[in-house]
Amino acid sequence: MTDQDKTPILSLRQIRKTYGLLEVLHGIDLDVYAGEVVALLGENGAGKSTLSNIISGTVQPSTGQMTWLGAPYAPTSPRDAMDAGVGMIHQELKLLPQLSIAENIFVGRYLKKAGRIDRQAMEERAHSGLRRLGLDISPRRVVEGLSTANQQLIEIAKALTLNAKLLILDEPTAALGGEETQLLFRQIERLKAEGVGIIYISHRLDEIRQIADRIVVMRDGSKVQEFDSGNVPVRTIVEAMVGRSLERMFPAIPTPADVTLLEVKDLCSALGHFRGVNFSVSKGEVFGIAGLVGAGRTELVRAITGADPIASGAVLLDGKDITPKAPIDAIRNGIVLVPEDRKLQGLVLDHKISENIGYANLAEVAQGGFITARRMAKFADQFIAKFGVKGRGSQNAGELSGGNQQKVVLAKWLARKPRVVVLDEPTRGIDVGARSSIYDTIMQLAREGVAVIVVSSDLEEVLGVSNRIMVMAQGKQAGILDRAEANDVSVMELATI
């Protein structure tokens, strides 16, 4: 690196961000150089998104200074940042499916000639940006039907067409397969060679060694460690993220009682998703459900909890038939579901955390049939503290990180003291620290005699937390394995029957 190269294109000094009395960023210093990938890592709620949003103009810092290409930098909107040459590619793709690629690239700032939209100029510039990424697609093609990987590259092409010199990639591989990920990495190497700086945010730590030149680790709103290479053992990164030595990911599993609590007998889906399922769960048992995508796992637990219709069979609690026709039937019997899509099915994102917790516990927060905000807030605060939610009850749930949103969903249901807890993909999209906290919660429930059902696509996870594992394949029950006989091979053999 020459002396000229040693001048950062972006510098942050003592960046702080406060919401009311809560400071979420504590004096962050960060430099990014042309032609390098800086991995920005940390648990959910560590401050990565807030910092990225400040750099990209979505959020303004409370104090601190930024410089861009040697000049003061204080964008008040994403458009300000993009005009300066800073682009952010979000995890949730924001392309408009019915518009062409060129229209998506220039949406909101169409090129004009003589007062009319200059489609030829837009398509030529869009084509140039696509070729720069090795993407041989006509800019006239509509976005609908394109693969997720190609849509991701179009988002990057959009930023490059607007002359971005710094790209912030937020979980860019979250929805990509192995080949698509390698394609993206090849394009990132091209951009590095062209002098584009990249801030790369990911929970997939095995990727970091492949793509990062430096690693910056955040924890609880502070920058806690920086590595001058991407070639750092995953364990070392994780321990920096969580602030403690990681002896084991999964806690010890308690021995369940010899008392059957929940039984499922010959259950068949009214929608045809599964048939002939039989199993039981004891008090204090963690019962895992594994299988490939489309095996019927989610549909099964939705039926058990009343969310999907049942054609035949029965659900028994303490030997009594309580087969639910609606979720309220299951809830009244002490059976609750933490769904796989927390944003769509688990929370009201534009309502307060305290309200989300209160909605599932109206009998507790209502006095004489009336609900007061003060009583709801007081009730919620104890569970926010109990589950370590990094947020205040007055915040909207949508402002929280994924891991903290999941903790709110857990809090609202566990406040009811349920007898059976069903967790569908409980750690999807959340970091290792939040996962550890959720595993601890699962084991605490088991110790208290609660029957816990865990559905997970993460085979290591379902093996790590379960006393027994039922494997499903093509809507049928392929087998039930005791912990001693369950391993990745035995589970996959059943899953692929």
Automatic annotation (TrEMBL):
Domain of life: Bacteria
SMART domains: AAA
Sequence ranges assigned to domain ABC transporter in this UniProt record: 10-245, 259-497
Magnesium recorded as keyword: no
SUPFAM superfamilies on file: P-loop containing nucleoside triphosphate hydrolases (SSF52540)
Similarity comment: family membership: Belongs to the ABC transporter superfamily.
Listed name of the protein: Sugar ABC transporter ATP-binding protein
MF terms (GO), sorted A to Z: ATP binding
Alphabetically ordered keywords of this record: ATP-binding, Cell membrane, Membrane, Nucleotide-binding, Repeat, Sugar transport, Translocase, Transport
Keyword Nucleotide-binding among record annotations: yes
